[in-house]
């Protein structure tokens, strides 16, 4: 995906563009399959342009170590996978820390829950296995714990983001007997974080110290009526009377874990982009006004990309595909909403009711 968007070739322009738009933080990814082509041999040349571009633009980066892709020689189900991943994480920290001002920020595994479901339960993602989602989830949790320990040994000041889907799953009013099943499905979204914290499956090695900043990925399709057959479930759209406000979902996660929060991904496609961002920004402000520590909103994606499933041109970013020189056309309605959110933040005084916030929210981006 990084290659398809041209970000690897035009990282300098991309990061300069972010900085010029006032976006001072980004999520970006390491391509593990390019870095460890041979077992135990780490070459970070494929990352060099991104690292230098971010540093030159003064943009802070949260680096994803595993965002679905792995080298062909790595088996996610192998007994030694946690150690293999930990060695990679350690090597990445040693490579990135000298190039980083301030603490090094890492997201060890993006969306353990979704990767476990897509890769281990329904065969949709690498490693394309079915019926082993729970096994893969536990394996990924072990790997994240080992990786965090390995990074902290060489970079004690490193900070970690755990990005997980934020969902709301309800029993349909016409199916009250589904209430318990809906509750269990809703609670399942927290299994990975509960495992990391040692609250669930303590034999995996989890503890509260493995929860740093909790990232929440939130999209228009993240609320639905429970159905035994996932393909038949009905989405609950924004504006529906049963739609649960984002501020309430954020407050519930903070009450559960007591950790700083970040909206680690949010966005939508086409002409709905500006209205969605406006809603998310205001809901985040409302959460902050209620003393929920949400420290950022991360727009996904910041550049349009080919569809994961069909390579279609997804118009979901702030900027479009690059031309031969790296120029990208901006989607101005979304840019205007981002600018409006920043202007609102600059006018706010701490403690104001909505429109207001307890502290400014950095408007961030994701690459």
Describe this protein's structure.
With 367 residues, this protein is an alpha/beta fold. It has a single domain, classed as TIM Barrel (Alpha-Beta Barrel), CATH 3.20.20. It has helices spanning 2-5, 11-20, 32-35, 45-57, 81-96, 112-121, 133-154, 179-188, 191-196, 246-257, 273-289, 332-347; strands at 25-29, 60-66, 105-109, 159-165, 168-170, 213-218, 223-225, 261-266, 294-299, 305-306, 313-314, 319-322, 328-330, 363-366. Helix 2 packs parallel to helix 4 (45-57), helix 5 packs parallel to helix 7 (133-154) and helix 6 (112-121) crosses helix 7 (133-154). 42% of the residues are buried. Mean pLDDT is 93; it is low at 353-367.
Short description:
With 367 residues, the protein is of the alpha/beta class.
Number of strands: 14
**Please, how many helices?**
12
Count of distinct structural domains: 1
User: Percent of residues in helical segments?
Assistant: 25-40%
Largest sheet: 8 strands, parallel, barrel
Question: Rg to the nearest angstrom?
Answer: 20 Å
Q: What is the CATH topology?
A: TIM Barrel
Kindly report the average pLDDT value: 93
Label the overall shape. Answer: globular
User: Uncertain regions: pLDDT < 50 for 5+ in a row?
Assistant: 353-367
Which structural category fits the helices and strands?
alpha/beta
What is the assigned CATH homologous superfamily? Answer: Glycosidases
Measure the end-to-end span. 10 Å
CATH class: Alpha Beta
Strand order in the sheet with the most strands: 1-2-3-4-6-8-9-14
Reading the helices and strands in chain order gives HHEHHEHEHHEEHHEEHEHEEEEEHE
- Which second-level CATH architecture applies? Alpha-Beta Barrel
Give the strand content: 15-25%
């Amino acid at each position: 995906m990084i290659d398809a968007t041209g970000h690897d070739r035009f990282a300098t322009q991309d990061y300069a563009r972010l900085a010029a738009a006032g976006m001072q933080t980004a999520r970006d990814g390491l391509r593990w399959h390019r870095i460890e082509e041979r077992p135990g041999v780490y070459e970070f040349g494929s990352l060099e342009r991104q690292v230098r571009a971010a540093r030159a633009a003064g943009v802070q980066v949260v680096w994803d170590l595993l965002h679905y892709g792995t080298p062909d020689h790595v088996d996610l189900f192998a007994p030694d996978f946690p150690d293999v991943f930990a060695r990679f994480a350690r090597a990445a920290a040693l490579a990135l820390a000298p190039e980083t001002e301030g603490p090094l920020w890492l997201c060890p595994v993006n969306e353990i829950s979704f990767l476990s479901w897509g890769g281990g339960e329904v065969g949709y993602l690498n490693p394309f296995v079915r019926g082993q989602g729970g096994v893969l989830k536990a394996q990924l949790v072990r790997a994240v714990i080992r990786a965090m320990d390995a990074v902290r040994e060489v970079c004690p000041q490193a900070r970690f983001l755990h990005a997980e889907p934020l969902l709301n799953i309800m029993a349909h009013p016409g199916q009250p007997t589904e209430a318990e099943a809906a509750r269990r499905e809703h609670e399942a979204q927290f299994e990975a974080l509960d495992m990391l914290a040692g609250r669930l499956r303590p034999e995996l090695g989890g503890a509260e110290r493995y929860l740093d900043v909790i990232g929440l990925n939130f999209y228009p399709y993240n609320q639905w009526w429970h159905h035994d057959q996932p393909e038949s479930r009905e989405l609950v759209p924004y504006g529906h009377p049963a739609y649960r406000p984002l501020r309430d979902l954020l407050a519930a996660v903070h009450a559960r874990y007591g950790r700083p929060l970040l909206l680690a991904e949010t966005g939508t496609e086409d002409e709905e982009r500006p209205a969605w961002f406006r809603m998310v920004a205001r809901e985040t402000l409302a959460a902050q006004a209620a003393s929920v520590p949400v420290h950022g909103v991360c727009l996904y994606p910041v550049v349009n990309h080919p569809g994961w499933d069909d390579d279609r041109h997804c118009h979901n970013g702030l900027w479009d595909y690059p031309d031969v020189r790296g120029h990208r056309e901006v989607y101005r309605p979304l840019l205007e909403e981002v600018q409006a959110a920043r202007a609102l933040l600059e006018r706010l005084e701490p403690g104001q009711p909505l429109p207001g916030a307890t502290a400014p929210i950095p408007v961030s981006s994701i690459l």
